[in-house]
Amino acid sequence: MSGGGDELKLLGMWASPFVLRVKLALSFKGLSYEYVEEDLKNKSDLLLRSNPVQKKVPVLIHNGKPVCESQVIVQYLDEVYSAAGPTFLPVDPYERAMARFWAAFIDDKFLASWLKAGRGKTAEEKAEGVKETFAAVETLEGAFKEISKGKPFFGGDCVGYLDIALGALVAWMHTAEVRHGIRLFDASRSPLLEKWVEHFNKLDEFVAVMPNIDRLVEHAKVREAEVAAAAANN
Ligand SMILES: N[C@@H](CCC(=O)N[C@@H](CS)C(=O)NCC(=O)O)C(=O)O
């Protein structure tokens, strides 16, 4: 489905999990759009004009109007294209609130701890990050059990808001596994989430937008070297 005469443009960067979140939402809704790859070291005027506050991707431009922040964009697409594809957010207000709560947890706790594990300034900070990441995984496992009620996805039989929020990180989880042999969702710690990844990996809509893992591995090495060089200069 196209946007019904609507013009949808996504400003992104291929390796960004936040951009992938929006690509996933567009993919599950079956919407066609124009994709513009940004060079984050030399941002386009369009990006700077569209997101003057953060100057970050993703930005979705809908009929000339920019929407920023990946989770906000996914909610926007769900509201504007409510008739297309699955409905991401639950209908029940309490369940909607819970979905938003856990989506915030995914970014503020799980992802933040994982980044600390990779980019911590000292070995202690990194070890702390690893510990916090696995604690967040266990918490998420409990949330998945409660929310999915025995179904394959957070959204039940179909993907929902939380599947997209977390699914956008799956490619980076595979990358961490290749690089460091660390499996974030494994059978011993989080058997339900391990199964969830298995189901998510098989979805055509995910396969269609998932970045190449070898390319991500190379990108991660370069990024890590840049972050280390910047830290050494400070
Ligand atoms: N909270 C934002 C995070 C977006 C973000 O951090 N984007 C990065 C790419 S992964 C970016 O544009 N960085 C450019 C910069 O910081 O200058 C979201 O969910 O959209």
Automatic annotation (TrEMBL):
It is an enzyme of class 2 (transferase). Residues 92-220 form the GST C-terminal domain. This is Glutathione S-transferase. CDD domains: GST_C_Tau, GST_N_Tau. Its EC number is 2.5.1.18. GO terms for cellular component: cytosol. One of its GO terms (biological process) is glutathione metabolic process.
